[in-house]
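Tutorial, part two.
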Amino acid sequence: MRLMSLSAILALALGQASIGSINTFTPPGWSQYGGNPQHTSLSAYPAQPLRAIQWSNPVDYDPQYSGNDLLIHYGTPLITRLGTVVAPAKIGATDGIDFLGFFPDGTLKYILGTDYTFPPHGWTPSCAGCLVLGNYYLAVPGSAGTIYLLQNPDLPLNQPTQLCYYGMSEYKASDMIQAQYDANVKICTPLMSSPVSQIYFGVRVLGPTDANLESGFVQMTVTPNLGNFISVKDACGDNTMTEPVMNCAPALSNDGKYVYIVVSNGDFGHGYLVCMDTHTWKPVGKVRLKDPDGNDAALPDSGTASPMVGPDGDVYFGVLENPFPYNHDRGWMLHFNWNLKVQKPTGAFGWDDTASVVPARAVPSYIGSSPYLILTKYNNYAGVGGDGRNKVAILDPNSTQVDPITGNTVMKEVLTVVGVTPDPEFSGVPGAVREWCINSAAIDPFNKSAIINSEDGTAYRWNFTTNTLDQSIVLTPGIGEAYTPTLISPNGTAYAINNATLFGLGLPIAH
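Running the prediction step on this input gives:
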C-alpha cells in the first residue's frame, strides 16, 4: 500500500521539493484529529468552492443547550481514501456514542454502535476514533478502556473486534469485574494512529480495579494485538500528576520515533508535555508547561488543544494563561524543539486550539525565511478585557514581535482576518464580532486557503492571497456553536460542524 508523505503533499500542492527532512506518512483521506498523526490539518486535496450545502446530518440526537450555547466538543469525523465519512454522534442526553458511516453523497451506509461512556466532565468531552493502516481499519473507543476495530470501513458494517490493553481475559473474568472496569476506566482523549499499526490514547482510572490500573497512556498494536501502558506518574516523573489532559490527542513525530502526550494534576491544573520513545515506551524528554510570565500554565478539561508536530519536528501546544484572564482568555501557543529542551517563540493565542501548518509558499505576501507558518485562532474576547475583534491568524513560528496586550515577545503576525458578524452580546463594545469556533482548521495548500468555522453559523474560506474571507456559506442561524474541527475529503468536499450538525460543503450535487 502506497502512503503519501507530507513532503510529497507539499511538493504536489506547491510545485516544490520536500521541506527539510520530513518522513511523515499521511494516508489519503482524513485519518484522525488534525488529519494525520502530527495533527497538522494539512489537506492532501484541494477543497471545492463553498457554494452549496451538499448534505447534512445530526451528530447529536439530544443536544443539551445552556442558553444559546452547546457545552460540548464533538469528535472529529474521519474520511477514508474512498470518501466514506465516519462521524461520531451522541445518541443520548448525557451519554452514548454511535459512529455513523456515510457515502460521499451523505447517504447513510452503516451505524457502528459502541458501549463507550464519557468520563466525568463539565463540557462534554470529544469522543473520536481513527483510521489505521491506511484506512484498512477503523478504531473507535469502547467501554473500560477498550477499543473496537472494524476491518475495511468502506464496506457495509462488519463485526468489529474488541481489544483491551490490560487483556480481554482480565476484563471479562466475571460480570462483577467487568462492571467494575466499565465504571472506573474511561478513555479521555481522541485516538491517534501511527502509519504502521499502533493506536495511542489516554485513560483515566476513577476507582479500584481488579488489576490495580492507574491513569495513563496506552500504545496498542493492531497486528499483532499487543498493549503497552505507562502511568501518568511514570511518564513525567512527578507523583503529583494524576491524569491525561482531557481531549488532548497524542501526536507522533515525523519519523515515528516519538509520541507527545500531556499530563496534569487535575481540571484547570498544571502539568507537563512529555516526549515518549515509541519503541521502548519510555519517556525521553519533558517540559513543565508555563506561560511567558513564568507561571504554571492552566490545563482545563474543557479545552481541546492537542500537540502539533511541525514539518521540522518542532512541537506546538496551546495552554491557558495563569492567572486567568490576564491575556483576555487567549492562552498561549507554546513552541519547543523535538526533545522539548529548547523553548522557541510563543504564539499569542493557544486556548482550546491546535495549530495548523501552512506552507510558506501558500502565503504569497510572506517574505520571511520560515519554510512553513502556523494558523491559530486569534480571538480577543470581549467580557474578559478584550476588544471583541475576534480574528484568525497566520504566524511565523521563528520571527517575533511585541504583543500589544501583554508586552511579551510573541510569534510575528503574517496575516490576520477579523470576523464579519457583529456580536449582539457585546453591542456596547465597538467592533465586537462573533468568535471563531474552530479547534483545528483545515488547510488547502492547493488553493492557498483555509476552511474555517464561525460562531455566527457560517463556514468561510480564508484566501491567503487576498487575505479576505472570499467564500462563505450559511449553515445555521448562529446559535449552539461548539469548538469543532474542519476538514477536507478526497473529492474536495469540506466538512464543518455547527449547532450539533455535520455539513458537507462544496459544489452543488447534480441529482
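Confidence is low (pLDDT under 50) at residues 1-26. In part three we will examine how such features are distributed along the chain.
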